[in-house]
Amino acid sequence: MTPRTKPPAVVAELGRPETPEETAARKAENSANHRNRQTVNNLVFSLLATVGLVIIIVLAVPRGTPVDVSAPVPYQSIAAEAQGSEPDRLLVPDLPSPWKSNNAELRTKTPDNVDSWYIGLLTPKKQFIGITQGFDANDTWVASQVNKTMIKGTTTIDGVTWDVYDNRDSGNDNGNVDFAYVTHAGKSSIIVFGSAENDEFHTVASALAPQIRQLGGS
């Protein structure tokens, strides 16, 4: 007995069996749709893997307050090595942490023929204050140190009287001399200048006062 051939399945959308051409087109469309889904899935997986890697890197980076790793300049020892080379002792303020120096040098053979001892300071508020001690300096040298600005008054700190130069509201480019104290003692002209606030200038002037008084300042 000859086996019966199974009739082709009726496709619901068509209401009849598919033709061979329709079957081939349907299979090709299904294959294309499958490849597209695989491509999209691969992109999603790659994106998730990338995001995960970024998160791991971010979590691995140490956190905390940025630290200034530059080593402070030992101005005390630099001054000790140079002591005796000038007519007055080099001034060395004793300042607490976190005050630190970023420069210190005895400047000789200068174009203005005035030797000077210089200390650059970084304040706890991240501002700048410089100390310059000129030896046997004249008024012209002092004027140049304060950008030829005018005295605004005087102040006395721990027994030392300072001329005050306040250029903060001048509207001019004053370089590093937004504010300055100037006094004289022995054969020294001492300038404390910079861009810090009044309390930090007061701290430096107070730290210098005992040594200035020893030089004969008042």
Automatic annotation (TrEMBL):
Residues 15-29 have a biased composition (Basic and acidic residues). Residues 1-34 are annotated as: Disordered. The chain crosses the membrane at residues 43-61. InterPro entries: DUF4245. Keywords: Membrane, Transmembrane, Transmembrane helix. This is DUF4245 domain-containing protein.
